[in-house]
């Protein structure tokens, strides 16, 4: 419990620091949401000043940050200028969609990486391992943007997958199972793209972690006792190789989140990505800060979850 | 182990005998499909007797550890025969090999990496019994506790994990695990080299006690000739993958015949003479 409390305190401090810096950086950027209105001769400077005053943009930075922080503790993330609505509900729907995409991709990536990495480690140096290594290296050299564009091209050319959105136009008329199938069909392409983008490092890490453990003397000792290969893997190698892989899982959340913003924009997945891009272009500050903070929360939560998993899996961490 | 004392009544029947043993590893050249052979050792003849210690000495890269792995049945040698009480182990099928593994056990150099870091002491010792399907869980635990006592570890530490033990205690744990299956042959691969002098002494004493109480045959790989002179009945010197000389310990130290053995002994003596000079 003390470990959890300590980790939670760290996470809170980290989020506070992230919120302050993103707030400061965004506020120090030239111009604001109302600046382009100045180009319109029909809008007077008094009107613009009035709008700035109404939304609190004329106040000093620490005051605005304090006001925003107070709001956050009451569940209010500020107001979107572009949508003229509170940021929190706007982000909630998008965050849910991003979570669905990233969780599915992460599951898919790890489900491919773990068995393939173990298989490569067991057949190291053989043609299958070398082919896997070449595939991972090739995938690593392809920029994410290119990968997503190729997937989009495949979807357009073949017509096998929807090319955008999260649901079909007739979604409302479908029964529950058809709704689930419809979302899954829309989810497949972006989830696959995101999984492929994050797969190469995972694959190489699983392989090297397994090779390291399989070469350890305690595995050789078990083999000298006549242990069967499947038991070596399940009882010996996997639990010991799990610790570095769980840490990697925490890091992969960060990679996946940043890659998801790109895939969402290209494959039109209605997540935080397109909302964030639009908000940055329009200087809709509270939406930007809200989206950045939400990403940070996902990231911190992912790492916290990984830490707790390591705490549960590795007894060495539990020693005071 | 007879602590340098040589017994005149050498058992007639050898326990483990290897003849013409050789091992080659196939490697591939970088950026090429060409394969080539690297010989780790060749034409090795060794004989181990119950209750006796054969020390294998030689420089790094001489092929000692590869030979140990082959003799512990962890690798299949590319040439030669290996007989345990007259039974050729290299012609055995998988099932018979599984049965025979309990007779030959190996203890590794680094006790920290030789023990599963996720298992408590008791389970580490009982694991060979579980692998070989011996006894119930309770019986295995009881045997593990007995072994802990035998190697001088407190049974109250049975739930402790390897990292909670000191280096010497970990090596005792590794010894207890190796003894779990009541083997006849123990292959000790530089088991003292990671320990400090007091711990080396304690482990040597423990190994000597266990040898006399269980009539164990030891193949003790070491590069420390001073220690070898204390515990070995016979010494085999390995150089560039071959056994170049094999004699009773006293005989080898008194009259080394091969140039490399003479060099090895000279290096030990020169350190001693330097110390003598300094103390003078």
Give a description of the structure.
The complex is a heterodimer of chains A (320) and B (280). Chain A is mainly alpha-helical and 320 residues long. Chain A folds into two domains: 19-76, no CATH class; 93-318, MetI-like fold (Orthogonal Bundle), CATH 1.10.3720. In chain A, 75% of the residues lie in helices and 1% in strands. Chain A is built from eleven helices and two strands, in the order H-H-H-E-E-H-H-H-H-H-H-H-H. The longest helix of chain A is centred in the middle third of the chain and has 39 residues, at 176-214. With 280 residues, chain B is α/β, with parallel strands linked by helices. Chain B contains ten helices and ten strands. Chain B has a six-stranded mixed sheet with strand order 6-7-8-3-9-10, sandwiched between helices. In chain B, strands 2-1-4-5 form a four-stranded antiparallel sheet, with helices on one face. Chain B is globular and about 55 Å long. The interface between A and B is medium-sized, with 20 and 31 residues.
